[in-house]
Specification:
Layout lengths: L2 H20 L8 E2 L1 H8 L3 H13 L3 E4 L3 E4 L4 H25 L2 H20 L3 H20 L4 H22 L6 H16 L3 H20 L2
Antiparallel strand pairs: 1-3, 2-3
Helix pairs in contact: 1-3, 4-6, 4-7, 4-9, 5-6, 5-8, 6-8, 7-9, 8-9
Length: about 220
């Protein structure tokens, strides 16, 4: 097998692992062996062995001597660190987005959010809830990716996995949160339309702080 093929299998294994983790087929804090990961991900042992160092580097697992691999645990320290990193990255990213996004791009975001909010005001069906969650994630990724810095985007996506793990237990998009979250996004978008980078950063920080408070149960 070529090195390229090995890397592709590793990346596939990594993707399968994170999907299983976010689906809670693998539990935070769980101890697993490489053999168990083979069964859970459906990937060959070689790919699992290649994947483990990447997971360790990303902070998603750690090796526990004589026990196996421990999956990232959710605790107050994780919540604090993950949201602090998110604030740092998105605070810089929203300022860049405010300068470089086209008027049409901002208008499209506004329309997308308004339509989703209006649908949620009428009835929060499973489809409306799913759509709102996708809009939430895509909005933040679009802003971060505008920095055109692959290193930052990669760090952000790993951190997003950790935050989504937290969301699954404490701050996921619940029916009663759909409209407030979309309104928080719209406050950011309003500042973007005015090309008010300071206002956009403030609105974004308000949004992130709200998610953090929910994660801490405040």
């Amino acid at each position: 097998m070529t090195r390229l093929s090995t890397l592709r299998l590793r990346d596939h294994a990594y993707s399968n692992f994170t999907q299983k983790l976010l689906a809670r087929d693998i539990q935070p804090g769980q101890i697993v062996s490489q053999r168990e990961l083979v069964e859970l991900t459906g990937m060959p042992l070689g790919a699992i062995r290649e994947m483990v160092p990447r997971l360790e580097a990303d902070g998603l697992i750690k090796t526990v001597p004589k026990r196996g691999l421990q999956v990232l645990s959710i605790d107050i320290e994780l919540v604090r660190n993950a949201f602090q990193l998110r604030s740092i990255i998105e605070g810089e990213a929203i300022a860049e987005f405010c300068k470089t996004a086209s008027n049409q791009e901002i208008d499209d975001l506004e329309t997308q959010h308004q339509e989703s909010r209006d649908a949620a005001n009428a009835s929060v069906s499973s489809n409306v809830l799913h759509r709102a969650q996708q809009i939430d994630w895509a909005f933040h990724e679009q802003i971060v990716d505008r920095m055109e810095n692959a290193l930052i985007s990669d760090i952000y996506r790993v951190n997003a996995i950790k935050i989504r793990l937290i969301r699954n237990s404490d701050t996921r998009m619940l029916p009663n949160l759909v409209v407030p979250v979309l309104e928080e996004h719209l406050a950011v978008i309003t500042a973007l339309k005015d090309r008010d980078s300071s206002g956009a950063a403030t609105a974004m920080q308000t949004h992130i702080n709200g998610a953090k408070r929910r994660a801490l149960g405040l």
